[in-house]
Amino acid sequence: MKQFLVIITFISFYSVSAQIFDTETIKTAGDNDKRINLVILSEGYQTSELAKFKTDATNFTNELFNQSPFKEYANYFNVHIIKVPSNESGADHPGTATDVTEPASPLRFVDTYFNATFDSFGYHRLLFYEIDGNYANNTQAKIHAVLAANFPTYDQALILVNSTVYGGSGGEFPMASLATNANEIAIHELGHSFFNLKDEYYAAGYEGEAINMTQQNNPSLVKWKNWININNIGVFPYGSSGIAATWYRPHENCKMRYLSVPFCAVCKEGIVEKIHSLQSPINSYSPVSNAITSPSFPLDFQLNLIKPTPNTLKSKWVLNNVDFASDVDGISILETDLNIGMNTLSVSVIDETTLLKVNNHDTFHVYTVTWTIDNSSLGIKNITSEIANYNISMFPNPTNTYVNFKFESETDTKMKVDIISLDGKKIKSISITNYQTNQIDISNLSTGIYLTNFFSGNILIASKKLVKN
């Protein structure tokens, strides 16, 4: 999940070194290796101003986790700050912007650690760590070096700049000033950098297919089709003429277009999906294979989950392919519940938040723990455990000819998929291969709704509706 190896390679290439700075945690939800770690770096703060930086970073953090969907998923994040002092306060204003009449702000050049500069790429409000894309000062390598030396297991870094002039930028490391709406700038820029969201205002040269931007204008085919006519989601052109008119956004009043408004439902869904891809909701479980000594009845099994607020996680416990319990964090198994010989207990966890269109969503995340219980006539001989994450796709859905299945997992090489009619008859049973798209012909099936069951070995880990047109 972390970026340490990439950082090492990048730093080695540029031969950049970084010193150790004071690092502090300002929001703790759990262990760093079981949380998404947001790291905020100071820029343009002198040593005497680092207490102010902590206050500014805390204010931003409070605002971020007061907004949906970060509010619901606050338990998934830790926030840390790295107090990087600059020799002088503020940021450069070279007066080289071409979108305003210069000087639009007083010209100034200050000695700061990360070279924060307004007027970047010719735009007055574009606050970046270089004046253009040439990276003449190797500042990006310098940022990597600071992170590698001070917090190498970061997931996303953000740079706060000690300037009251409005400005910010996205990119690998989003940067934001302390102007009015500065927190909104930073949250908007995180939308770009961390969650791959596009601007929903037209920015020439930055067009591209993304979660919230497309050239498809058919409501039945657009990537956010499941949200059409819900929460004011539609298909809206970026402009009335030229290239802008060929691109479409899902909403007319999203944070990716205007500050101080919420993210639209499509952007929220994209953010939640990224959170799921980075962090499993299973914080820990017990018993763990190497921690079991002299097990005796009743056998207790427990999940420690990272729960959204409100909790939208659903769990399903299955013992020897028979449903055992649902939506509980722990169970107890009696000797009479087990067969003599090998027994399999599994629990699968999914998130049924309304922020995702789960029933019709092409991609969903399933998290499982499996225990193998060796029960002899003399009692429990051994319990082994295994945890796995699955990212499963089924598309297109609905369909009338072919359906594609794909799954990604670090543990399994194959998965079985059963297609079941609503009266319980098994129509097809197929084997699909990890990381490969497997296309199945269903043109001979009758029109209607089918259930697809996904099995890892003999363990049912997910079910999904398939609509045959």
Automatic annotation (TrEMBL):
InterPro entries reported for this sequence: MetalloPept_cat_dom_sf (IPR024079), Peptidase_M64_IgA (IPR019026), Secre_tail (IPR026444)
Name assigned to this protein: M64 family metallopeptidase
KW Signal (keyword) present: yes
All copies of domain Secretion system C-terminal sorting, residue ranges: 394-466
Pfam families membership: Peptidase_M64, Por_Secre_tail
Sorted UniProt keywords: Signal
Species for this entry: Mariniflexile jejuense
Endpoints of the signal sequence: none
